[in-house]
Predict the structure.
Amino acid sequence: MNVAILGAEPASQAVAQIIENGYNPWLKTKLAEPLNVAGYTVGGGIGSPALGDKVVLHFVQFAALYHKGLIHKIIFPREIFNGQTQVLSHLEMLGVKIEDVCMAQRLNSKIFSTNFIEPYLSAKHLPYLEFHVADHCNLNCKACEHYSGLVKEPHFPNLKKFTRDFERLHEFIDDIGVIRILGGEPLLNPELNEYIKLSRRLYPQAEIHVVTNALLLQKMPEEFFETLRQCRTVIDISFYPPLESKIDAIKNFIESKRVSLFVSPLNKTFTMKQTLNRHDRPREIFLQCFQAHCHNLYEGKIAACFLPFTTKYFNAYYEKNLPEDGALDLYDPTLTTEKLKAHLLKPFERCRYCTPPVDVEWTTIKNPSPITDWVHD
C-alpha cells in the first residue's frame, strides 16, 4: 500500500523512518501488508525538491495520484498539529475520503503495536482545543464573535463541574496538540491557576496557552507566574491598539518572570462574518472557515467552534433567535471517539449565518451597542 506523510519536516521524516525500519518488519510478522512511503505532502507552491528517495507533493498533486489509485492513504504525524484540521478540510475539497486519512502515534510513544498508524477518526487525538474561563471581558471589542461585550453579568465556569467535563473528554481524547485557555478575558478568573494545572495534568504533552489582552498582566500575583513556569504554559497576547504604548514594558516584565511569551501582530482590524440572512452554503462556508477548527469545550459539550455556546449572548441582547445548535453532549451514553471526531468535521445550522469575512476597523463598543457592531448586510 502506497502512502504519503503530511509535511516534509523532521517529524514527517521520522514517521517515515519508523514505518520502514520498525513498523513494516513488525507487520511482516503479522502477515500484514507493508506500507510503502511514496512521498511527503505539503501545502503551497507546486511541490518541492525530493527528500532522499521520496518525492515532495503539493496537496493537488497528492490528490491527483490518490484519485488514480497510485497513493492510497495519507498519514498525519501527531507533532504536526498546527493547521491539521484545515488540511483535512482542504483534502476533503480535493475529494480525499476521511477513511483514507490516518494518524501516527507520538514519536516519543513507548507503545509500538498495530495502533502506531490508526484511522484518523479512531485516534484519540485532537490537534486543538480551547475553552473559556470567563465569558465576559474588560476590553469589549466590536465584532468579537465570542460576544464578550454583550455579556451583562460576569460569568465563570464552575471549576468542579468543568473538571468532570474535561476528565470525561479525556476518556475519548487522551492527546491534544494545543490547548488555549481564553474568554472573554481569562485573567479575570480568580481560579485561572487551577485550569492551567488541570490542563497539564490531563494532557502532559500539549502546548498550553493563556490568551489575554494583557491589560491585567502586570497586576497578576507571583503565584500565577509560578504556575505558568511549572506547567510550561505560554502567555499568548492578543495585541490591540490600547496596548501599543505598553507592549515593550509588558514584554520586559514577562521576560523577567521567565515565562514563554507570544505576541500577535497588532490588530487594527477585525473580521466580521456574521449575518442575519440565512444562506444555503453551510458546507462551503464550514470548509473555508478558520474558526471551524477552534474546537471548544463548554458546559459538558464540545463543538467545532465557539458559536454554539456564545450565540446565546447575541440572542439575549438583541432578542434574536439565531441557531444555538452544533454542540455534542459529552455525556451521551452512545458517544465514541469516532462519533466525537466525526461531529467536529461537520457543519451545522449556525453555519448558515456565517459568511466570508469582511474587514472592519478595530474599536471597542459603546453601551448600548448597535447590532451593526456584530453583523453585516
Remarks:
- The domain at 2-119 is CATH 3.40.50.720 (Rossmann fold).
- The chain has a mean pLDDT of 94.
